[in-house]
Amino acid sequence: MDFEEMMKELEKIVNRLESEDISLEESIKLFEKGVELYKKCREILQKEQLKIIDVLQELEGDEDDSR
Description:
mainly alpha
């Protein structure tokens, strides 16, 4: 499952938790699934952030070399 799919699934979970009359047990299962999806999404974003930082540092290095 990619990032966008996980975000859509998280949105569905939130909508179900907010709008449906579901049992406590089902609510807890949905909450647990949501937390796991959140962690995976956060991990992906952190990895992508590191890539962006690396690219920016390379760019800064290139600019320093050209001076």
